[in-house]
């Protein structure tokens, strides 16, 4: 039986399995530049974050209707439940869809249909976190927050993702302030490919409560001391780090050293359709490659519930 756990770093668009991509492409009359699911899977060889993002954004072309987003989220929740996930905080990238002419309402209401049924259908409670694309202008993030206003009863928090290097957290200070004023929780990707200074900036300037990845934190001892003291959770994604070449091999992943340093680490799947595994697959991989003891694995599972936005009760109904 997999350990009960919370998944805190999961991009819903990154759960698009090749089979569903082809099904949605056929349904929506979208031509995919791959002969079949096998050919598509063979394209899942990445050199770095950007090479993954190119494919990740291009495959989103198959997602067009509320039904598509509901099907995507329901398929993820079924897989997550089978892997011991009891609570999932799900990222989505509204700008990647509005840029293609899909309204934010289609995205949020489609996802929400699956999320609202999830406790009963899958035994998984959920939260929705809207991410801004950091390689787009800050103005676009502000416009996206504004466009999301009618849907904020569905949305618990905001995040920051996409190409990290060259797009420091400082760029998004204003939109994070506006989101905080609306009562939204705040997280941000930092220290995946970018330097530890981006983690410090996300804490100081964006007021984030968790760091997504934080892989490079150990490079800065003062930062580590602060993260330990304040019990700032890090949502690590080991299989993702290997596939995107942030670490050479899983056996060299810094997770054990980070736990030894007293950091509040969690293990998550990021974009499981692309990186070779869902939540329990990541737990199994770190157990096997890093020799984590059963107690260490239980600590990771416990941390995931401590770091979750479960104290938020239900997402607010009206703002
Ligand atoms: N978008 C989807 N997955 C991501 C990742 N691992 N880092 C940054 N942006 C992402
Ligand atoms: Zn991510």
TrEMBL record:
Binds 1 zinc ion per subunit. Keywords: Hydrolase, Metal-binding, Nucleotide metabolism, Zinc. The active site is at residue 192. Zn(2+) binds at residues 9, 11, 189, 270. It is an enzyme of class 3 (hydrolase). Residues 4-317 form the Adenosine deaminase domain. Substrate binds at residue 271. Its cofactor is Zn(2+). Catalyzes the hydrolytic deamination of adenine to hypoxanthine. Plays an important role in the purine salvage pathway and in nitrogen catabolism. This is Adenine deaminase. It comes from Streptomyces xanthochromogenes.
